[in-house]
Design goal:
Keywords: ATP-binding, Nucleotide-binding, Transport. Belongs to the ABC transporter superfamily. GO terms for molecular function: ATP binding; ATP hydrolysis activity. This is ABC transporter, ATP-binding protein. It comes from Heyndrickxia coagulans. By secondary structure, this protein is an alpha/beta fold. The chain has a domain of 171 residues: P-loop containing nucleotide triphosphate hydrolases (Rossmann fold, 3-Layer(aba) Sandwich), CATH 3.40.50. The chain is 31% helix and 26% strand. It is built from ten helices and ten strands. The strands form two sheets. Strands 6-7-8-3-9-10 form a six-stranded mixed sheet, with helices on both faces. Strands 2-1-4-5 form a four-stranded antiparallel sheet, with helices on one face. Strand 1 and strand 2 form a beta hairpin. Helix 4 crosses helix 5. It is globular and about 50 Å long. The two termini are 36 Å apart. The relative contact order is 0.18. The chain binds adenosine-5'-triphosphate.
Protein backbone atom coordinates (compact mmCIF):
# COMPACT_ATOMS: atom_id res chain seq x y z
CA UNK A 1 0.00 0.00 0.00
CA UNK A 2 1.21 3.50 -0.81
CA UNK A 3 2.68 5.44 2.11
CA UNK A 4 1.38 8.98 2.55
CA UNK A 5 3.40 11.64 4.32
CA UNK A 6 0.55 14.17 4.29
CA UNK A 7 -3.15 13.26 4.52
CA UNK A 8 -5.74 15.99 4.22
CA UNK A 9 -9.36 15.00 4.70
CA UNK A 10 -12.60 16.99 4.61
CA UNK A 11 -10.66 20.22 5.07
CA UNK A 12 -12.54 23.52 4.94
CA UNK A 13 -11.17 26.91 5.86
CA UNK A 14 -12.42 30.49 5.88
CA UNK A 15 -10.96 33.82 6.93
CA UNK A 16 -13.76 35.66 8.72
CA UNK A 17 -16.66 35.00 6.38
CA UNK A 18 -14.76 34.33 3.15
CA UNK A 19 -14.62 30.63 2.27
CA UNK A 20 -11.16 29.90 0.93
CA UNK A 21 -11.00 26.10 0.89
CA UNK A 22 -13.89 23.67 0.76
CA UNK A 23 -13.88 19.99 1.49
CA UNK A 24 -10.33 19.26 0.40
CA UNK A 25 -9.19 15.62 0.36
CA UNK A 26 -5.56 15.22 -0.64
CA UNK A 27 -3.07 12.46 0.10
CA UNK A 28 0.57 13.09 -0.76
CA UNK A 29 2.70 9.97 -1.33
CA UNK A 30 6.18 9.69 0.14
CA UNK A 31 8.78 10.70 -2.44
CA UNK A 32 6.33 12.67 -4.62
CA UNK A 33 7.10 15.99 -6.26
CA UNK A 34 3.67 17.60 -6.05
CA UNK A 35 2.82 20.83 -7.85
CA UNK A 36 -0.15 22.65 -6.31
CA UNK A 37 -1.43 24.95 -9.02
CA UNK A 38 -4.22 27.50 -9.22
CA UNK A 39 -4.87 31.15 -10.05
CA UNK A 40 -4.36 34.10 -7.69
CA UNK A 41 -6.39 33.81 -4.55
CA UNK A 42 -7.30 30.16 -5.09
CA UNK A 43 -6.11 29.17 -1.62
CA UNK A 44 -2.71 27.61 -2.41
CA UNK A 45 -0.72 29.47 0.25
CA UNK A 46 -3.53 29.00 2.74
CA UNK A 47 -3.39 25.24 2.19
CA UNK A 48 0.37 25.24 2.86
CA UNK A 49 -0.13 27.30 6.03
CA UNK A 50 -2.72 24.80 7.19
CA UNK A 51 -0.29 21.92 6.52
CA UNK A 52 2.36 23.76 8.54
CA UNK A 53 -0.06 24.22 11.45
CA UNK A 54 0.08 28.01 11.12
CA UNK A 55 -3.69 28.16 10.61
CA UNK A 56 -6.43 25.99 12.06
CA UNK A 57 -9.17 24.61 9.82
CA UNK A 58 -12.81 25.05 10.77
CA UNK A 59 -13.49 21.55 9.46
CA UNK A 60 -11.50 18.47 8.62
CA UNK A 61 -8.14 17.04 9.54
CA UNK A 62 -4.52 17.00 8.45
CA UNK A 63 -2.11 14.22 9.34
CA UNK A 64 1.66 14.48 8.94
CA UNK A 65 3.44 11.12 8.87
CA UNK A 66 0.24 9.58 10.18
CA UNK A 67 -0.01 11.88 13.22
CA UNK A 68 -2.84 14.43 13.51
CA UNK A 69 -1.43 17.95 13.27
CA UNK A 70 -2.69 18.81 16.77
CA UNK A 71 -0.29 16.21 18.20
CA UNK A 72 2.53 16.56 15.66
CA UNK A 73 5.80 17.79 17.22
CA UNK A 74 8.56 16.60 14.94
CA UNK A 75 8.95 19.77 12.87
CA UNK A 76 12.56 19.01 11.97
CA UNK A 77 11.10 16.50 9.47
CA UNK A 78 9.59 19.39 7.54
CA UNK A 79 11.32 22.26 5.77
CA UNK A 80 9.67 25.37 4.38
CA UNK A 81 10.83 27.97 1.87
CA UNK A 82 8.63 30.99 1.19
CA UNK A 83 8.79 33.76 -1.41
CA UNK A 84 11.88 35.40 0.00
CA UNK A 85 13.56 36.95 -3.00
CA UNK A 86 15.54 40.10 -2.24
CA UNK A 87 15.22 39.49 1.48
CA UNK A 88 18.79 40.60 2.19
CA UNK A 89 20.36 43.89 1.28
CA UNK A 90 23.93 44.05 0.04
CA UNK A 91 25.34 44.91 3.47
CA UNK A 92 23.95 41.84 5.24
CA UNK A 93 26.87 40.50 7.31
CA UNK A 94 26.64 36.73 6.81
CA UNK A 95 28.20 34.39 4.32
CA UNK A 96 26.30 31.71 2.43
CA UNK A 97 27.97 29.09 4.62
CA UNK A 98 26.86 30.83 7.82
CA UNK A 99 23.28 31.20 6.60
CA UNK A 100 23.11 27.50 5.71
CA UNK A 101 24.73 26.44 9.01
CA UNK A 102 22.05 28.42 10.83
CA UNK A 103 19.59 25.84 9.47
CA UNK A 104 21.18 23.32 11.82
CA UNK A 105 20.49 25.41 14.90
CA UNK A 106 16.90 24.28 15.28
CA UNK A 107 18.16 20.71 15.29
CA UNK A 108 21.01 21.32 17.74
CA UNK A 109 19.40 23.95 20.00
CA UNK A 110 20.12 27.65 19.99
CA UNK A 111 23.21 27.90 22.20
CA UNK A 112 24.71 24.53 21.58
CA UNK A 113 28.00 24.33 19.74
CA UNK A 114 27.72 23.39 16.10
CA UNK A 115 30.25 20.56 15.88
CA UNK A 116 32.82 20.02 13.10
CA UNK A 117 30.27 17.91 11.22
CA UNK A 118 28.10 21.00 10.76
CA UNK A 119 30.39 22.60 8.21
CA UNK A 120 30.54 19.40 6.19
CA UNK A 121 26.75 19.04 6.21
CA UNK A 122 26.32 22.69 5.25
CA UNK A 123 28.77 22.34 2.36
CA UNK A 124 26.92 19.25 1.17
CA UNK A 125 23.63 21.16 1.13
CA UNK A 126 25.29 24.13 -0.64
CA UNK A 127 26.68 21.81 -3.29
CA UNK A 128 23.31 20.17 -3.85
CA UNK A 129 21.80 23.55 -4.80
CA UNK A 130 24.77 24.38 -7.04
CA UNK A 131 26.11 27.24 -4.91
CA UNK A 132 29.54 25.90 -3.86
CA UNK A 133 31.38 28.66 -5.70
CA UNK A 134 29.64 31.22 -3.49
CA UNK A 135 30.02 29.54 -0.08
CA UNK A 136 32.22 32.31 1.36
CA UNK A 137 30.47 35.23 -0.27
CA UNK A 138 28.09 37.50 1.63
CA UNK A 139 24.50 36.52 0.91
CA UNK A 140 23.48 40.12 0.29
CA UNK A 141 25.74 40.23 -2.76
CA UNK A 142 23.85 37.45 -4.54
CA UNK A 143 20.96 37.69 -7.00
CA UNK A 144 17.38 36.90 -5.89
CA UNK A 145 17.55 33.45 -7.50
CA UNK A 146 20.90 32.65 -5.91
CA UNK A 147 19.61 33.75 -2.50
CA UNK A 148 16.61 31.51 -2.98
CA UNK A 149 18.93 28.54 -3.64
CA UNK A 150 20.73 29.38 -0.38
CA UNK A 151 17.40 29.39 1.50
CA UNK A 152 16.68 25.97 0.06
CA UNK A 153 20.11 24.75 1.23
CA UNK A 154 19.33 26.13 4.71
CA UNK A 155 15.98 24.33 4.69
CA UNK A 156 17.47 20.97 3.67
CA UNK A 157 20.66 21.00 5.74
CA UNK A 158 18.78 19.43 8.66
CA UNK A 159 17.63 16.67 6.27
CA UNK A 160 13.87 17.15 6.33
CA UNK A 161 11.71 14.48 4.70
CA UNK A 162 9.26 17.01 3.28
CA UNK A 163 10.12 20.37 1.77
CA UNK A 164 7.28 22.83 1.16
CA UNK A 165 7.92 25.72 -1.22
CA UNK A 166 5.57 28.66 -1.77
CA UNK A 167 6.17 30.22 -5.20
CA UNK A 168 9.96 29.98 -4.78
CA UNK A 169 10.70 31.44 -8.22
CA UNK A 170 9.21 34.85 -7.50
CA UNK A 171 12.17 37.17 -8.07
CA UNK A 172 14.19 34.51 -9.87
CA UNK A 173 15.43 35.78 -13.22
CA UNK A 174 13.31 34.20 -15.97
CA UNK A 175 16.46 32.79 -17.63
CA UNK A 176 17.28 30.83 -14.49
CA UNK A 177 13.85 29.43 -13.66
CA UNK A 178 14.43 26.25 -15.62
CA UNK A 179 17.71 25.36 -13.90
CA UNK A 180 16.06 26.25 -10.58
CA UNK A 181 13.38 23.60 -11.17
CA UNK A 182 16.04 21.14 -12.34
CA UNK A 183 17.77 21.64 -9.01
CA UNK A 184 14.48 20.88 -7.20
CA UNK A 185 13.99 17.76 -9.32
CA UNK A 186 17.47 16.59 -8.32
CA UNK A 187 16.71 17.14 -4.63
CA UNK A 188 13.56 15.07 -5.03
CA UNK A 189 15.32 12.23 -6.85
CA UNK A 190 18.70 12.15 -5.15
CA UNK A 191 17.85 13.18 -1.60
CA UNK A 192 14.46 11.48 -1.72
CA UNK A 193 12.76 14.57 -0.23
CA UNK A 194 9.02 14.82 -0.83
CA UNK A 195 8.47 18.23 -2.43
CA UNK A 196 5.26 20.24 -2.20
CA UNK A 197 5.52 23.16 -4.56
CA UNK A 198 2.94 25.94 -4.81
CA UNK A 199 3.12 27.58 -8.21
CA UNK A 200 1.19 29.53 -10.81
CA UNK A 201 3.22 28.09 -13.56
CA UNK A 202 2.46 24.49 -14.45
CA UNK A 203 4.10 25.16 -17.81
CA UNK A 204 7.50 25.46 -16.16
CA UNK A 205 7.16 22.38 -13.98
CA UNK A 206 5.02 19.89 -15.92
CA UNK A 207 8.09 17.86 -16.93
CA UNK A 208 9.46 17.92 -13.38
CA UNK A 209 6.58 17.17 -11.01
CA UNK A 210 5.29 13.65 -10.45
CA UNK A 211 1.85 14.75 -9.19
CA UNK A 212 -0.45 17.72 -9.66
CA UNK A 213 -3.18 19.22 -7.49
CA UNK A 214 -5.47 21.80 -9.12
CA UNK A 215 -6.95 24.13 -6.58
CA UNK A 216 -9.52 26.85 -6.84
CA UNK A 217 -11.30 26.82 -3.50
CA UNK A 218 -12.21 23.22 -4.33
CA UNK A 219 -9.66 20.58 -5.29
CA UNK A 220 -10.64 19.97 -8.90
CA UNK A 221 -8.03 17.37 -9.65
CA UNK A 222 -5.37 15.43 -7.86
CA UNK A 223 -3.33 12.71 -9.47
CA UNK A 224 -0.12 11.85 -11.20
CA UNK A 225 1.25 14.00 -13.98
CA UNK A 226 0.30 11.50 -16.71
CA UNK A 227 -3.35 11.50 -15.68
CA UNK A 228 -3.21 15.30 -15.55
CA UNK A 229 -1.76 15.57 -19.05
CA UNK A 230 -4.49 13.34 -20.44
CA UNK A 231 -7.23 15.60 -19.16
CA UNK A 232 -9.30 17.48 -21.64
CA UNK A 233 -8.00 21.05 -22.09
CA UNK A 234 -11.53 22.46 -22.05
CA UNK A 235 -12.29 20.78 -18.79
CA UNK A 236 -9.12 22.08 -17.19
CA UNK A 237 -9.79 25.61 -18.40
CA UNK A 238 -13.27 25.52 -16.90
CA UNK A 239 -11.76 25.18 -13.42
CA UNK A 240 -9.83 28.39 -13.97
CA UNK A 241 -12.25 30.51 -15.91
CA UNK A 242 -10.18 33.60 -15.17
CA UNK A 243 -6.73 32.19 -15.77
CA UNK A 244 -6.71 30.13 -18.91
CA UNK A 245 -3.10 31.18 -19.59
CA UNK A 246 -2.02 28.97 -16.74
CA UNK A 247 -3.07 25.94 -18.69
CA UNK A 248 -2.71 27.21 -22.22
CA UNK A 249 1.09 27.49 -22.14
CA UNK A 250 1.61 24.17 -20.47
CA UNK A 251 2.92 22.64 -23.67
CA UNK A 252 5.05 25.65 -24.51
N1 LIG B 1 -4.73 36.77 6.42
C1 LIG B 1 -5.78 36.84 5.61
N2 LIG B 1 -6.94 37.39 6.02
C2 LIG B 1 -8.03 37.45 5.23
N3 LIG B 1 -8.07 36.95 3.96
C3 LIG B 1 -6.96 36.38 3.50
C4 LIG B 1 -5.76 36.29 4.28
N4 LIG B 1 -4.80 35.66 3.55
C5 LIG B 1 -5.37 35.37 2.36
N5 LIG B 1 -6.65 35.80 2.33
C6 LIG B 1 -7.59 35.62 1.21
O1 LIG B 1 -7.79 34.21 1.01
C7 LIG B 1 -7.83 33.90 -0.38
C8 LIG B 1 -6.77 32.84 -0.69
O2 LIG B 1 -5.48 33.41 -0.49
P1 LIG B 1 -4.14 32.57 -0.73
O3 LIG B 1 -3.00 33.49 -0.41
O4 LIG B 1 -4.21 31.29 -0.03
O5 LIG B 1 -4.22 32.30 -2.30
P2 LIG B 1 -3.10 31.86 -3.31
O6 LIG B 1 -3.72 30.84 -4.20
O7 LIG B 1 -1.86 31.46 -2.59
O8 LIG B 1 -2.86 33.20 -4.13
P3 LIG B 1 -1.56 33.79 -4.85
O9 LIG B 1 -1.27 32.89 -5.99
O10 LIG B 1 -2.03 35.14 -5.30
O11 LIG B 1 -0.46 33.86 -3.84
C9 LIG B 1 -7.65 35.22 -1.12
O12 LIG B 1 -8.91 35.68 -1.50
C10 LIG B 1 -7.02 36.13 -0.10
O13 LIG B 1 -7.38 37.45 -0.32
Amino acid sequence: MEEYVVEVSGLSFRYDRQNVLEQIDLNIPKGAFLGIIGPNGSGKSTLLKLMLGLLKPQEGEIRLFGTPLSRFKDWSRIGFVSQKANAFNTGYPATVLEVVESGLVKKTGLFRFLGPGARKEAMEAIRSVGMEAYAHQNIGELSGGQQQRVFIARAIVSKPEILMLDEPTVGVDQRHVRSFYEMLEQLNREWGITLILVTHDIGAVSDKVTHVACLNQHLYFHGDIHAFQQLDEEKRSSWYAHDVRLLAHEHG
